[in-house]
Amino acid sequence: MITVTFPDGARREFAPGISGLEIAKGISPSLAKRTIAMALDGVLSDLSDKIDRDVSIEFISRDDPRALELIRHDAAHVLAEAVQTLWPGTQVTIGPVIENGFYYDFYRNEPFTPEDFPAIEKKMREIIAKDKPFTKEVWSREQAKKVFREKGENFKVELIDAIPPGEDLKIYKQGDWFDLCRGPHMTSTGKIGNAFKLMKVAGAYWRGDAKNPMLTRIYGTAWPDQKQLDQYLHMLEEAEKRDHRRLGREMDLFHFQEEAPGAVFWHAKGWSLFETLTSYLRRAQMDAGYLEVNTPQLMDSQLWVQTGHMEKYREMLFLTEKREDDERVFAIKPMNCPGHVQVFKNGLKSYRDLPLKLAEFGKVHRFEPSGALHGLMRVRAFTQDDAHVFVTEEQIAEETLKINNQLLEIYKDFGFEDVRIKFSDRPEQRIGDDVIWDKAEAALKEALERSGKAWTLNKGEGAFYGPKLEYVLRDAIGRDWQCGTIQVDLNMPGRLGAFYIAPSGEKVTPVMLHRAMFGSLERFIGILIEHYAGHLPLWLSPTQAMVCTITSDADSYAQELVQTGARVGLRFEADLANEKINYKVREHSLAKIPVLLVVGKKEANERTVSIRRLGSTDQKSMPWEDALAMLKAEAVPPDLQRAEGLA
RNA sequence: GCUGACGUAGCUCAGUGGUAGAGCACUCCCUUGGUAAGGGAGAGGUCGACAGUUCAAUCCUGUCCGUCAGCACCA
Questions:
Q1: ipTM computed for the complex
Q2: Residue A453 belongs to domain with CATH number
Q3: Which of A50, A144, A318, A509 is in the most buried spot, having the most CB atoms within 10 Å?
Q4: Which element (helix H / strand E) includes A387?
Q5: For residue range A149-169, what is the model confidence (pLDDT) as tens digits?
């Protein structure tokens, strides 16, 4: 007999080989009816699975959070059946669950389009309405390959070959249709319900490799009920309103145009934000002992041969043409590091100079693939808040930890409390000995452990010259972007001939730590806009207050307020337009101006202002001097607010 | 780069094989109005670029450029 433990702690004995469904039926028919799967010792399993050991069991109903992935996975199978029914000859490949939904990759000569969705969804509803039971069979490798080969499912045959020898080959059937699948599934297609929707089609390479054929991927989303589906769709609409490309236009921050793909035209307001951020970073860097330098935009391409970039990234470099009177080819810098190494090399350095921290707001250019470009997030010309810390091997972990800590401090100033850290170790294509890589990776791990922050491993994703930590932020629609980074480089300084004089008098190659806090200013601004949904805090907002006149009687008073604001370092503007106050309030609210100072004849006479904050309909009248003092205090950047406590 | 979709006024979008339209924005006039759109008039377009088909192309075909989504890439 086996002992089964129930969620309430009760234990019961059963004969080995009893299925979950039988146990549920034994308890009550209604439980069996509403149970769609089970968890054995916490692991989701088919309700039909036979139990032959002591376990704890939980019956999963449709409203259990764990049912969500089953609903989506089953929906993917139904999608595949629907597509193969409508277009026989289409090959199936894989169809996993993803965040917020699922997809299925198909191979077919004719691509699918969104116009096909209604037909596919209709067929899916039919399959769901038939409430076909999911049944599982375990096949032998040979049998499975034979069946799929005969069906012309060549991709499935390849998948079977990739399954490790010890693992069972499971086939899930829903009526006549079946698929190779790891499972588990719900008891029948009817459990999926009707709260699903096909979202988009896209190409995707077979097995994620650009050398392989391209498949058509159909994305869908599925939820336990219509309400949750509607909520999700509504959330997507709201996220669209936060899109920095849209807000960038609405707030008059920047634009792009065809002549400069992947390069930003910063407008005055966007540049104000950019400058506010660089000033902030300058203070932070100075505080941490960095020296700001500036290195050439264009250097002999030979330098990039030395670093290894020409070999690995030739296609991504912007190169000049050879000139008749000069045989040399120049490259626009894709990174700042070689420039900083030149600064380091200029003049003899001693171990006493280390750690030496060189920083630069370096504008770099990379010929990114056209399909990679995305607003401010992925551009071809961007500004790094780049720095290189030259250290001895012994100093690596300590300096890395310092950078990590400052980075997290800085992110907090922008409300990013839960930054995710990825540790990317050695890639296949790399320079330098493995002994060196061992050291570099160990140093980063030590720093991570000492910081106590959670992190995940990003296997094989390091830079070609060294491992890295990536600090990842998420945009409005859930896409992840690398912002900050720390990289340990035991290769490049040596390649470029940098050394310092050790206490022994020997020449020793320094280790270089590459670090960026925002990463790319452009990307960080994109993330910030979406993070704040355009509602920038006062210290960042390009226009901090708009003085709106009620009638032209207050024009000169309004202008005076703007001037006084400017004199104390506040960015005010006046709206003297011949429009009603309703119109002005609406216009500037839509432009995300954080503070509206409304002035009419009354305020001009009494020297007061009526204050209205973005996102609120409250209005408060107060003496102008008080309002000015209040806004001035509020507009102090967070780091300077902290510093005031020190003075 | 790959697959697919898209490109018409500053923005959002209609539209047609016979050289274009709306709303908002813009300019001017009237209005001086107290917290999310006052009224009127006007101006504004090589219909992404280049070829081809056609008597005639913004519309059909092709190539290119750009944008969007996903994939691949991301020093």
A1: 0.95
A2: 3.30.930.10
A3: A144
A4: strand A381-391
A5: 999 999 999 999 999 888 889
